[in-house]
Design goal:
CATH class of the largest domain: Alpha Beta
Strand order of the largest sheet: 4-6-7-9-8
Radius of gyration: 35 Å
CATH topology of the largest domain: Heat Shock Protein 90
Structural class: alpha+beta
Helix content: 55-70%
CATH architecture of the largest domain: 2-Layer Sandwich
Number of strands: 9
Oligomer: single chain
Number of domains: 2
Distance between the termini: 46 Å
Order of helices and strands: EEHHHHHHEHEEHEEHEE
């Protein structure tokens, strides 16, 4: 047996104790247990080898017995307590095994006093058993704690993804309703840009369906759909919204979570006045490897209803993907969100 493994089909993890550790530790315990014999003056090499072999075989058997007492190989429930039923089984197994090994020793060397031998070897066996059990216990508890941490991270990531999907679903239905109303008005007045409006609306929703399951996309794709989105907004608000894209083309291969810029633009519109008299200017740029989206601050007296989780959700997405936070700067004249480039 080259290694000892315990598979967990639920989350496909593996508890693994390398065979080298098992065999070398057993050999070390066999040699260590024979030191008192080495100090004796009248002992043959054969007797010394047999004595070391007993401790070695006992240690090796105890290793595998305790490993096979762990989940998958055993129905005994897992517990965090050190003293439990699993330990009692291990000690009982060790006592029986040592009786067998000492019996074999007595057959080979009948000159030894059996009762003295059995007491000495049983005491030695219990110490070896407790040492191996304690080491395996702490090793397995560390493994379990690590698996719990991984599971918590997975649940957190799934929850974050669900929140992000929910946030996107809040934006798109309202946007579609407003876009269809705008299209209706354009058709009624026979606006020559109606066909272009329909194409951009189609591109936007095609992108929504194709990219919604991806964690990140190239910045060039995000900007392309953002331009379609801004065209639709411009048809609705006319000159009440101004969009400036100053992002260098060299950053086109950088990555960004899909819909991030759209959600930030939607956030600008939710909280600020957008009118011909007070145009809302949205400016995109890159500064020190941070993607900046800035708008002039002209807050509404009664802003649109919001769950106030848009920026926080985007920040959590960046923490999950890059370990970095987004930066928010607000002053009397402007509001800026800075996104780490991936």
């Amino acid at each position: 047996m080259l290694s000892s493994k315990i598979n967990y089909s639920a989350h496909k993890s593996v508890f693994f104790v390398p065979a080298k550790i098992i065999w070398f530790s057993s050999l070390f315990m066999g040699i260590l247990a024979s030191i008192p014999k080495i100090l004796q003056l009248h002992i043959t090499a054969v007797e010394l080898a047999v004595d070391a072999s007993i401790a070695f075989l006992f240690s090796l058997s105890t290793w595998y017995f305790n490993i096979y007492g762990l989940p998958k190989f055993s129905n005994i429930p897992v517990t965090n307590r050190f003293f439990n039923l699993r330990l009692l089984y291990s000690i009982f197994f060790g006592i029986v095994l040592m009786l067998i090994l000492v019996g074999i020793h007595q057959v080979l060397f009948p000159g030894y006093h059996f009762q003295s031998m059995i007491l000495m070897y049983q005491f030695r066996g219990i110490l070896i058993n407790l040492t191996i059990y304690m080491f395996l216990y702490f090793l397995y508890q560390t493994y379990r704690n690590h698996q719990i941490e991984l599971e918590l991270e997975r649940v957190k990531a799934d929850h974050l993804t669900a929140q992000y999907e929910s946030l996107k679903q809040q934006v798109n239905p309202h946007f579609l309703f407003n876009s269809l109303n705008t299209l209706k008005s354009m058709v009624e007045i026979e606006d020559k840009h109606s066909a272009e409006f329909i194409l951009n609306l189609s591109d936007f929703y095609r992108f929504t369906l194709e990219k919604r399951k991806q964690d990140v996309i190239p910045l060039a794709e995000e900007l392309s759909i953002l331009h379609s989105y801004m065209f639709l907004l411009s048809a609705r608000f006319e000159e009440g919204i101004i969009f400036e894209d100053q992002i260098p083309e060299s950053y086109s291969t950088s990555l960004i979570p899909p819909f991030t810029l759209q959600l930030l633009v939607e956030n600008c519109i939710k909280h600020n006045v957008v009118s011909l008299e007070q145009p809302l200017t949205i400016f995109l740029s890159v500064n020190k490897d941070m993607l900046c989206i800035q708008n002039n601050l002209q807050l509404k007296m009664n802003p649109d209803p919001s769950l106030k989780m848009g920026l926080e959700n985007i920040n959590q997405r960046y923490q999950h993907l890059t370990g970095k936070n987004i930066e928010i700067e607000e002053n009397p004249g402007s509001f800026t969100v800075k996104l780490p480039l991936i």
